[in-house]
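> forwarded from #structure-qc
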């Protein structure tokens, strides 16, 4: 008798991160729902890795041949194409993209399955925020794009929060396959919400990223990808009337202050005086004059807090300041 298709597919695109992939897979296959039922499957798409990724994935496939499946590209492709490949390889009613270095917490598979069953009839967009923005509610319903951006902010770019229903796969996989930028998942979410689709955001933290995972974001990618692709995508939505100008401007402020500057400070090894003017000049193309100079002042404040308050961050008040600026 033919086995029933799984209800949930965790779709993991990966490239050259075998040690992290192994821990992620262990966190999934170790859960009771995975071991005791056939409701959950894992699909790994190896983007022609040159390390031990293929053997790591094969080992889990051998242990769970009906529940873990591995596919591999014949040659290195753009990450968005690998996203399309892994989503198409899934068989579940809900297919969630999942990071290869994100270990899930106990009970998350049960939560995913509950959300799948409870929303199968109306099929809203399901997005998993992973506790990145504090919210007391488990679920937040966003009925338009303004509300979604207002709640999720720049985390719309995170692939670990993205999921689609099986009937949406053919259309959205094509968007991934032919996207001219790095944020096909964000474009899909924006387009669907602007078209009248509702989004349901799961707010609690459900996974923990490996602390020693190499950060793929560099100074160059921050400037060329986020400022060159994400912010223009926001402007485009505003120009098309999909979001208000107020929403676009507020999101640009949030992106600059709560993502770009803190992240830039982490990856920059030079003294802030040297970066004060030269490295932020390109921002003029994307923000207004007032915001441009506020960004410089904010960066100075951030450097001061990091270098002078950090040694005394045992004090609750100073720890709260750092947490606010680095959230």
């Amino acid at each position: 008798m033919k086995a029933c298709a799984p209800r949930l597919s965790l779709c993991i695109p990966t490239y050259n991160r075998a040690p992290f992939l192994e821990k992620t897979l262990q966190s999934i296959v170790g859960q009771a729902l995975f071991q005791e039922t056939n409701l959950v499957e894992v699909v790994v798409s190896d983007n022609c890795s040159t390390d031990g990724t293929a053997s790591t994935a094969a080992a889990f496939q051998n242990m769970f041949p009906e529940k873990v499946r591995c596919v591999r590209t014949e040659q290195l492709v753009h990450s968005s194409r690998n996203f399309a490949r892994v989503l198409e390889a899934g068989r579940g009613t809900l297919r969630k993209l999942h990071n290869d270095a994100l270990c899930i917490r106990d009970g998350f598979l049960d939560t995913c399955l509950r959300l799948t069953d409870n929303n199968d009839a109306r099929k809203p967009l399901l997005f998993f925020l992973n506790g990145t923005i504090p919210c007391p509610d488990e679920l937040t319903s966003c009925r338009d794009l303004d509300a979604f951006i207002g709640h999720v902010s720049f985390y719309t770019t995170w692939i670990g929060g993205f999921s689609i229903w099986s009937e949406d796969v053919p259309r959205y996989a094509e968007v991934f396959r032919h996207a001219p930028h790095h944020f096909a998942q964000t474009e899909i979410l924006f387009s669907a919400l602007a078209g009248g689709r509702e989004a349901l955001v799961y707010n609690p933290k459900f996974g923990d990223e490996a602390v020693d995972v190499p950060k793929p974001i560099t100074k160059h990618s921050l400037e060329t990808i986020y400022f060159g692709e994400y912010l223009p995508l926001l402007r485009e939505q505003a120009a098309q009337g999909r979001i208000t100008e107020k929403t676009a401007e507020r999101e640009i402020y949030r992106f600059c202050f709560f993502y770009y500057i803190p992240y830039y400070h982490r990856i920059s090894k030079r003294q802030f005086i040297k970066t004060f003017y030269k490295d932020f000049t390109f921002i003029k193309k994307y923000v207004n004059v007032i915001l441009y100079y506020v960004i410089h002042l904010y960066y100075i404040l951030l450097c001061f807090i990091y270098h002078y308050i950090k040694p005394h961050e045992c004090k609750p008040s100073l720890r709260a300041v750092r947490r606010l600026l680095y959230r």
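QC bot note: The mean pLDDT is 87. The first helix runs from residue 18 to 29.
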